[in-house]
Amino acid sequence: MNRTNRARLDIRSVDEITGSRRLRRMRKADWSRRLVQENRLSVDDLIWPIFLTEGEGREEPIAAMPGIFRYSVDLLPKQAERAARLGIPAIATFPNIDMAKRDTTGSAILDPDNLINRATRAIKEAVPEIGVITDVALDPFTDHGHDGILRDGIILNDETVEQIAEAAVLQAAAGADIIAPSDMMDGRVGAIRDALDAAGFQHVAIMSYATKFASAFYGPYREAVGTGGLLKGDKKTYYIDPANTDEALRETEQDLSEGADMVMVKPGLPYLDIVRRIKDTFAVPTFAYQVSGEYAMIKAAAANGWIDGESAMMESLTAFKRAGCDGVLTYFAPQAAERLRS
Fold first, then answer.
1. Which InterPro entries did the record assign (predicted)?
2. For the chain, does the N or the C end have fewer beta carbons within 10 angstroms?
């Protein structure tokens, strides 16, 4: 539209409309955009989830998660050294247990020399300064894929809590720095705290999966840990309904009262409103898990040429910071760390 047409339509000038407040002024150059950037992602915000497998010399690709592998324990030192070299503060481990070692109660989690504990010792021996985060949920150890002890179609809360508290002590003894219970059993955080303290592990922290939702975004993860084809029923009796936000706050408040040092929201991007509410309400260290389905969607869209995968990766991670996260568990951690160094 030329000036004559604008005058004929009686449109005010841009300065009149905006009161001379032109918000594009600080977007005009790279230096000015950097100067006013409100949230900044750094390598210090990244936690790298790594999948484990039995055997030696094994690096198994996960079909639903391009670029992600299961590693046998002997290959973990190399991955830990890679993480440390990139400046990634911590690794979270998730095992794919041999079917022969799985049973109804997930009893192999109580083996001091199980896959999780051997992995922790190997990582700590190779790179003592890197943080190791372990999960005490039973799903990788059960033959039914549930996070707790299953009997007559019911997940037994109290028996499960007793077992995972015992497992937490074994994981701490192996060198875990943070116990991150993802099972969503009532009372688990308090029981784990009591067990750790009684065993002399007062220094071991708890990162509670305070708000873990009954989500459709976990599929590739279940392939990675070998539970996808095992699951009987669903997990709606212990994970949170995706429609609920107040319940998520009640869960968080309960876990903090029981002794959680930090809390996590899982999944991530679909639940940024939960992250924001938790951070605003409790002002505690708050994390999110960019889960396998989120990773797979970005990778699949990028592979088809529909999006710029690397830009989408960085944008999604920045969104977690904007929502209030202090850190993010993400399978993109090494790739993002490389990008942040460049």
1. ALAD, ALAD_AS, Aldolase_TIM
2. C
From the list 124, 235, 266, 321, the catalytic residue is 266
Q: Domain limits at 189?
A: 41-341
- The question of whether 212 is a catalytic residue gets the answer yes
Dihedral angle over CA of 325, 329, 331, 333, nearest 10: 70
- Is 251 flagged in the annotation as binding? yes
Q: What is the pTM of this model?
A: 0.93
Whether residue 78 lies in the annotated active site = no
Give the CA distances from residue 341 to residues 3, 129, 322, 328, 334, in Å, rounded to whole numbers and listed in that order.
48, 20, 21, 18, 11
**What is the count of structural domains for the chain?**
1
Domain containing residue 141: CATH number: 3.20.20.70
Q: Which residues contact 6 (CB under 8 A, 6 or more apart)?
A: none
Interval 310-339: pLDDT, tens: 999 999 999 999 999 999 999 999 999 999
